[in-house]
Structures are given as C-alpha cells and as structure tokens.
Amino acid sequence: MARTRVIVVRSARAWTSGGDPDPAVITRMFARGFALLDGGDDGRAAAAQLFRPDDRIGIKVNTIGGRAISTRPETALALAGWLASNGFPEKNLFVWDRTTRELKGAGYAPAAGRTGVRVFGTDADGLGYGPDLVSHLGVGSLFSKIQTELVTASISLAILKDHGMAGVTAGMKNYFGAIHNPNKYHDSGCDPAVAEVFDAPPIKSRHRLTILDALLVQFHKGPSYHAKWAARYGGLVFSPDPVAADAVGWAIIEKLRAAAGLPTLQDEGRAPVYLRTAAAMGLGQADAAQIETVEETVA
Amino acid sequence: MNRRSFFNRAAGAGLALGGGLPALGRRLAAAAAAPNLARVEARYYAKLPDREIECRLCPRLCRLGDKERGYCGVRENDGGTYYSLVYGKVCALNVDPIEKKPFFHVLPGTTAFSLATAGCNVNCKFCQNWEIAQVRPEQVEAYDLSPEAAAARAVSSGCPTIAYTYTEPTVYFEYMYDTAVQAKRRGVRSVVVTGGHINPEPLADLLAVVDAVKVDLKGFTETFYRQYVRGELKPVLETIRAVAKSKAWLEIVALVIPTLNDRPDTVREMCRWIRGEAGDKVPVHFTRFQPMYLVKNLPPTPVSTLEEARQIALEEGLRFVYVGNVPGHEGENTYCPGCGERVIARVGFQSEIVRLKKGQCAKCGTTIPGIWA
Fold it and tell me: Is residue B65 part of a domain?
C-alpha cells in the first residue's frame, strides 16, 4: 500500500530581517508545495485536482492567538493570491475565522466587498451559525454558515501550536472555530471531539486540503504565545490527508521540543490521542511509518 | 421551558430583553457587532506560572493558558488574570411563579424575579435551555443589570425572591453572590437552581447569602453523568450533602428520562441515599422529560413511570415527593405526612394553600418544613 505523502516546504528567508513574514517567499513556498502535491511539476494541476474552477474556497484560519501566534495574514493572503493566479477567481476565495474581531486582532483587514478576496468572521452581518443543531456522534453543535452555506470547498490553513489540553492544535482542531461551542470539547485531550467535529458532514464533505502555517511554531506552553518556546521554523506543511498533516505537525513540535531539552508530549501525558481516533475512524493516516514526508527548501 | 417561551412570557411581563426571538444565527450576528462582555475579575482561581491559571470554582478545575476560556465559555484568562465575562450581563429575565423553578416549599403562590446569564459548566444532552446555556456570551444578546438594579427591580416587581435559574448560576457566581447580598439588604430572598457542580469553598460562601437551593440530580450513576451530562455525580452528591447541612432550604429535582435513568432499582437507591444524607423532609420532584436538544429520539416520560418513582420514594420514607411537568396530577399537591390531608393544592404553576397555618397542618398540627413567610 502506498504511503501517504505529506509535503513540508521550508525557507530560511520566510522571515524578513525586520521580523515579518515575507509574502514573496511565502508565495514561492505555496507554489512549490502545490507542485509537490502533484509529484513535483505542476502546482496548477494539483490545485485543479482538489478544487473545481467554480468552487467557492474557504480558507479557515486560526486567529485566537492574536498577532503573535495566529495563522499569519501574510500566509493566508499569499495562499489566496496563489490560488487566484492559478485559475480560482478572487471573488470565490474566503479567508475566515469565527469572529471579525479576532481576525483584526491577528492583523487581518476585513474585506466584505463584492470583488476581491473576502475576509470576515462568522459573526459578520448576515452570517452567523446555521439554525439547526448538527448532532453527529458525540458532537452537538451549530456550524458556521460560512462553512455550511457559503463555501463549497475548504482549506484548513492552521497555525501549528502546542496545546495544553489537546497536545497539538493544527489542521483538524482548527475546525473547532467553525462551531459555536468549542469550549465543550476540550476535555479528555479533545478526544474524540477533534475527530468527530471533523467527521461531521459540514466539515468532511468540504475539506480538501490541510496546510499548516509553521512559519512560527509554538512548541511548548501553547496555545498562547510564549517567545521563549516559539521557534521560527519557516515551514508550510501540505496534505490532502488531514490526519497525516497533523501527525507531521506533531513530529515537528516534538523535534523542536527535543532541541529545547523538553520532554515529549507523551511523557507529559498530552500526546494528541485524537489523531489515533481519527485514523481509526478512517479520516486519514496517523502512523508515522505509513507517512512519506517530502521536504524541500525554497530559496 | 425553552428560551422562546420564556421570552414570550417576559414580553408579557414587561421584562423582555428584545422584541420576540430571532433565530440564533441572526442573534449571533447582531450580538457580535458589539459583544457585550463584562470584565470583572473572577473569584476562586489560582495564578500559575507562564500566565496560566487554574479555575477552582467547579470540579472541572480548568487549567487555562492566556486567552483561553473555561469549559463554561464565560470565564476567560487574559494575561494571567481570570475574568468573568458575564457579570451583570443578563440574557434571560422574567417574573415566574416560584413553582416553576420548582420550589414547592418556598413561599408558594409568589413570584420569583428570575434571571440568567449565558453559560453552563456541563453539557446535558437533554438541556432544556441550550440556546442560552450552551452558548458563549457573545452569542446571545445581553442586558446590563447590576446587582443593585436587580435587587431593586425584584422589589418593584413585587417579587419576594430572586431566582438564579435557566442556565447554570455557578458560572456567574460573582454576579449571583453580589446580587444575593444586595437583595438581602432589601429584604429579598435568593433562591438558586443548580446542577450542583460547584466546589465546596464557593458553595459554602454562597450558602451564607442565599435562602434556598434546588439541585438537579440528573441521574444516580457515574456512567449516566459521564455520557449524558458531561459531568460527574460525586460532586453533585457532595453539594446536596452540604446544602442539607446548611441553613438554606433544599429541594431536589430528578428528571426522569425513559430508558436512560428510569430503572426502579436505581431510583430506589437514589431515594435511600437522599433520605440517609439529606433527611426525609427534603422535597423530591420527579419531573417529566420532553424531547429536547440532543435527545429527540425518546418519547416524553410516561406518567406511570413518574408515579412509580414517586411510589418508590414514599416507600423509602421520603415525606414530600412530587410529580412534575404533569399539570393537574395529584402528585403536584403537598400532603401532610401526619394525617394525609392535602395542605397545598397545585395545578401546574398555580398553587393554593388550603390547610397550612404557620407552617403546620391545619388539621393535625404536623410541621410542614419550608419557608412559608
């Protein structure tokens, strides 16, 4: 059986000397990441396999950590820009999170016009949460209308962080921001809630691709920002397999922890066990031995 | 009662927070334009290194990093200081018959100034008020009502009590406590409707300022609490013990759900425990389940099941046992345990004192415990 491919694209120049992400470099990272998804040649073709030309593509970001440790606007807008230049109209691209306030706090400029890439929260005027509870496995939640009504395909563009309760927060847990009651799902290491929320029809039926923003990784004491334990990893992680992408994200966190002399998440009793649950539910591959990590560096 | 119905009732009483009840999604959008959040430092938490905190209000003991909220969704760590986001932010306000709480042995026939903020520290799959209990505060419209104003409004509304109800008042502990203190100064009593998930220290402090507590004993097995309540039974039992030992009046409600918590042997075990730990005089209400929230696949509780539970409780020596949510049922009435005479008649939320004088049966003189004046 073929191993699941996860692409890691890194650049030593992802951060400018001024301390900000470099959009031009990040755009090249996206281009290379999509190309590697297709085997290394044609990013446009890879994107065409993931999305229909008329798809309205949601780019779900995680902005709870404010400017310090969220999915960077430079990252999200570089992705939108790359998609727009590869056959997907800007008007069909939606960068979103649960509240416009949190998006602003992370440095995003809300945009809800009729043209261009749209940027707004579930709480934007006329949106909100769907009126009907989705009861799925152990989940009972209202889902954002952005996810259920506005978009037809979804990218989880998640910040990669250590998480005190879940162990790791990455692409799957990012969808907690698509439901109205994420606070109800943080006990027991967020297991099986992360997998069950992802498995709910509003998410699973639309999810196409996970991309982890690992430009800056909080590898300890997350999900809040602590400079002491945040590393400029300068990476983006790509996979259509949501479980494998997060498993590789976990491995990155463990490498950074080891380099800092920290115990493993397993040793701290906070391994992200929801990944095993997700794999058992058939959502993807959590076994490192069955994951092929393809890593490249972009200048 | 669901949010829609009590808002409608509130409108009739002139206490509505808004005209009618728009769909939750629309309300969320409206509320989000300018989220009406409080920022009052929480009580009962410990500051930890690295801007983390541990909430010690309820048995969950949420340990939270900066910018995280507890399970309740209404208390937030901001930079290592823990805040209540709902202090004085009332999302439900109504004048209810006190029988609706239900309190059957507290000032029957009077009204309770009933209020709630958003939030709950459990997640019952059968929640009756999930649209305000199982949401975050920015997802509902809130009305600013200080403790002083709440106490004054209770007086002007002719209510001898303030009821902290609808959601889980533990999560707005600071507001409830301060309101109870203000109410007491104005001669208004405070009654609490709770699921009982609260730690001993805040409970002891609360019991010093409130007059009555109704605890929902939602089942009698840890398995039920884990699966259907997302909580634990043990702390609820500890709460019942503590209230029973205090000067506050205690009543217990057991919602009976077909096939989930209606086994006669479990009901009997529960009744024995209540009698042993809280005494035979604590009123126990077996109330009828209606399909709601995430449990819509079960029928309403058969009245015969409630009657059987009541019979078991009486057999186990409990003296004041009621059937709830079945208007007109004889099990709504209070009967004198001495002579069997009906001393308080009830139909639904209406009650009439028929043979009770100064807390005693007018026929045989047996003391009927409660708060009667």
Answer: no
Q: Measured between CB atoms, which of A130, A222, A225 is closest to B25?
A: A130
Q: In this structure, are residues A248 and A237 in contact, taking their beta carbons and an 8 Å threshold? A: yes
pLDDT at residue A114, rounded to an integer: 84
- B-chain CB neighbours of A64 within 8 Å are 67
Structural domain boundaries, residue B110? 90-361
Give pLDDT, residue A35: 97
Question: What is the predicted pLDDT for the residue at A41?
Answer: 84
Total domains, chain B? 1
What is the span of the domain harbouring residue A176? 4-297
| Residue B68 placed within a domain | no
Give the domain CATH number at B279. Answer: 3.20.20.70
pLDDT for the residue B113: 98
Least CB-CB distance to B135: which of A65, A121, A181?
Answer: A181
Quote the minimal CA–CA distance from A174 to chain B in Å: 15
% of residues, chain A, pLDDT over 90: 95
Overall domain count for chain A: 1
Q: Kindly state the percentage of chain A with pLDDT values over 70.
A: 100
Query: Nearest CA to CA, how far is B38 from chain A (Å)?
Result: 16
Q: CB contacts < 8 Å between A and B, how many?
A: 93
- Quote the CA–CA distance of B49 and B63 in Å, as a whole number: 11
CB-based contact, B119 to chain A, within 8 Å: no
